[in-house]
Specification:
2 copies of one chain form a homodimer.
Chain A (H helix, E strand, L loop, with lengths): L2 H28 L2 H8 L3 H7 L3 H9 L2 H5 L7 H15 L4 H12 L9 H19 L9 H23 L4 H16 L2 H6 L11
């Protein structure tokens, strides 16, 4: 990348972060493009150069979730699947872009949007790691990577919502561990179930 | 009940149903008490005799979910737990009170409500059926009814949301069956796992 491209990427990220903060605080309805521009310290022209509308901004925030998680991980296969959910659980408490992304994905129905990209992206990523697990002989016979991935995406969406209402997400890492303790014996071999580490600390990556 | 009490119950249900329809169509923000009164064909006085505010109405709609499901079931223990989720999956497509209840429970955060009663009621009901399953010897050793119930409530919340965005809930019964196929081996004995019927048709009760 040359300097000009680098600056463009930086500006785009700056807008994305400002948008996420405003969406996180006020929801989609309560967020205006002008308040996002103000928060980013940029001009309306700069924003519209990168994003054509508020909806495009919301979609970009929703769909940036994997980028906030995947580069932090070093495990693979089934352990990586577990790690994704634990890092997600932890970073939801500290990363406004991730938090806004999840909020928008959950609430989008009520403002007429129906973008399942963030769900489908996670499903595809998780399916890939489960395929690896299958090749490594870690899955029980008959367990389909895609079925597990689809279920885990849905289940995580719901447990974070319940956790948010009940504890402001303070118990989310523990509830995510519960999920794996209940789910692993049904999807993984006894050897893999015994080997996979399920603990809130797995989410504490920088 | 005497005639007067019967009429009061009927009026209350009439209001609840009208409120559910209006919430289901317009969300909480878009619903006004006057539109609910109009839909119910009653007076504002009748409404305020039964419910003190729009929020009280929303809470009543959210918390009437078990009443729409539990009386329809005749199984017990683990089979009943499975049946609850399958009847819930099916009736979400046809029962506006249930649909509005779930919508309000999911969206309440954005209008400043934080009523976890509907989640906690389901959790308590499910914990009871899982206690029965444990007494009947159907649970694996070390599996705690309360942990399973908490997880199932959260997971169902999320899979219905994902299903709604992806297929307008057309695949919800199938996804609920997937959940049980993945989960049962981890929580139930092999005998119980083989015995429990998991099929969309279980949800087709009147």
């Amino acid at each position: 990348m040359d300097l000009k491209q680098e600056r463009a990427v930086r500006t785009r990220n700056q807008i994305l972060r400002a948008a996420a903060e405003v969406f996180d605080e006020n929801g989609y309805d309560g967020a205006s493009v002008s308040s996002i521009v103000k928060r980013a310290g940029l001009t309306l022209g700069a924003l519209y150069f990168h994003f054509e509308s508020k909806q495009a901004l919301a979609e970009a925030v929703m769909n940036s979730q994997p980028q906030a998680i995947e580069p932090r991980l070093h495990s693979d296969g089934l352990q990586r699947l577990v790690d994704i959910t634990l890092v997600w659980a932890r970073r939801l408490q500290i990363d406004p872009v991730l938090r806004a992304g999840v909020r928008l994905a959950v609430e989008q129905g009520r403002f007429g949007m129906r973008d399942v990209t963030s769900f489908e992206d996670w499903k595809q990523i998780m399916t890939g790691h489960l395929e690896t697990a299958r090749v490594e002989g870690d899955l029980r016979e008959g367990v389909l990577p895609q079925t597990v991935a689809h279920f885990v995406v849905g289940a995580c969406t719901g447990i974070q919502l319940y956790s948010q209402l009940l504890t402001g997400r303070a118990d989310l890492a523990d509830r995510t561990c519960d999920m794996w303790q209940l789910l692993l014996p049904g999807i993984a071999t006894p050897e893999a179930t015994a080997r996979i580490v399920v603990a809130p600390e797995r989410g504490a990556v920088e």
